[in-house]
Structures are given as structure tokens and as C-alpha cells.
Design goal:
By secondary structure, this protein is of the alpha/beta class. The protein has helices at 5-14, 17-26, 68-75, 97-105, 120-125, 183-205, 210-217, and strands at 39-40, 47-58, 81-86, 93-95, 110-117, 131-137, 146-151, 155-157, 160-162, 167-171, 174-178. It is elongated.
């Protein structure tokens, strides 16, 4: 599976979290949707990309190198990546405008922050260049309040385990984590289901009964 910009843009345009969850269900992956505590900064956002995980934790004093591992994590981003951060205390605005601009320069597509963000107006001004989903907002700096323990490590984000390299898809309905080992199969199945849903929608709009349409297409 070639995860270049053209492929990711196509997936982002044509698919949605609901159909991806349906396909994951079929394959036995029934707990891949985050729990609904994270929201896009703009409701119309759709975001797909490769997870680059970040694990943060609370601190209560200012270390000498407060940002060292955080800077490493951002500088390690590459084209098609999505930052996925676990920092659930929300006692600081972990992600902000400068990190956003640094991530854009590396080719990253967005961030999923299980924690709080700041500089929201400035991030919104960037529009579709970088899409952020977050659990909250907080203008306080992370310095002396949290540290990045590690990155590209397994984390839990809003109730779902995420590994670096997994595929992330977010829209107004929520955020789904697609394990990399089944991603191609999930995307292929989802494309087929979207085509079937288009046929079902047309039949229903023409007045067909739901039971008859379901009996023919087995899509609901």
C-alpha cells in the first residue's frame, strides 16, 4: 500500500469513519473508534494519515530541557503523518501554533490531541493545511506542566490503542484507528461499500421500501 499524498487525499475525500468502522467490524476489529471526547477545531474537517504517536505525562516543576523530546518528535515527522498524542490531564495547551507550523513544514497532515491545545485562532487560519482534533483548550504553556516521555511508541488515545504506523481517519462523527496490517483490506472493502451505499440511497430516495432494498443489497 503506497501511502502517498494522492492516495491519502482520495481516501479522505471518498470515505468516512462510519463505513470504515463497518469494515473493521467485519474483520473482527470492533473497538477501533475513539470514545467521542475529541472534536475537530472546525466541524467540516476530515483527516487521514499515518499515526506518529506521542506519550506525555504531567510534571510539577520546570526541568532544564523541558521541550527536548517534544522537539525530537516534531522534527521526526514526515509527509502523510498525523500526530497522535496522549496527554489526558488537559492541564496545559500541549499543541499550539508553532508546533503546527513545524509539522506542516515536515509534510504532516494534522494532529489528534487527547489533551488540550492553544493558539486555536492561529491554527484555524491555516485552514485545511493542518487539521487538529482535541479534547479541550488551555492557554497555559506545557513547560513545567508536562513532558514528552517517548514517541513512536504504543499509546492509548481516547480509549483506543494506537501504534506508530497505524492509519488514522477522523471526521465529524469521530476518529477511527485502522491497524496497519489490515489497512489495505479495510480501504478496499470500504470503497466497495460506498459504491453499494450509493445504489441503496438512490433506491430509497425513489421510494423503495427499506426491507426490499436491504434484501437485495444487504447494506444498512
Amino acid at each position: 500500500m503506497k501511502l502517498d499524498k494522492a492516495f491519502l487525499d482520495r481516501i479522505e475525500h471518498e470515505l468516512n469513519t462510519a463505513v470504515l468502522c463497518d469494515m473493521l467490524d467485519e474483520l473482527g476489529y470492533r473497538n477501533q473508534a475513539m470514545k467521542g471526547h475529541l472534536y475537530p477545531l472546525e466541524e467540516g474537517y476530515k483527516l487521514v494519515g499515518v499515526a506518529r504517536t506521542v506519550l506525555a505525562y504531567d510534571v510539577y516543576q520546570q526541568p532544564e530541557e523541558a521541550y527536548a523530546t517534544e522537539i525530537e518528535a516534531v522534527d521526526a515527522l514526515s509527509e502523510g503523518d498525523v500526530v497522535v498524542c496522549s496527554n489526558p490531564s488537559r492541564n496545559n495547551g500541549f499543541w499550539g501554533e508553532l508546533l503546527t507550523n513545524a509539522a506542516i513544514a515536515r509534510g504532516a497532515r494534522g494532529a489528534i490531541i487527547d489533551g488540550a491545545v492553544r493558539d486555536i485562532a492561529q491554527i484555524r487560519e491555516l485552514g485545511s493545511r493542518f487539521k487538529v482534533f482535541t479534547a479541550g483548550r488551555n492557554p497555559l504553556d506545557s513547560k513545567g506542566r508536562c513532558l514528552v516521555a517517548d514517541y513512536d511508541c504504543p499509546i492509548e488515545c481516547d480509549g483506543v490503542q494506537v501504534k506508530a504506523g497505524d492509519l488514522i481517519f477522523g471526521d465529524v462523527d469521530g476518529i477511527v484507528v485502522i491497524p496497519v496490517e489490515v489497512a489495505q483490506d479495510v480501504f478496499d472493502r470500504a470503497m466497495q461499500k460506498v459504491q453499494g451505499e450509493n445504489l441503496v440511497r438512490d433506491e430509497l430516495r425513489k421510494g423503495a421500501y427499506l426491507k426490499d432494498v436491504f434484501a437485495e443489497y444487504h447494506i444498512l
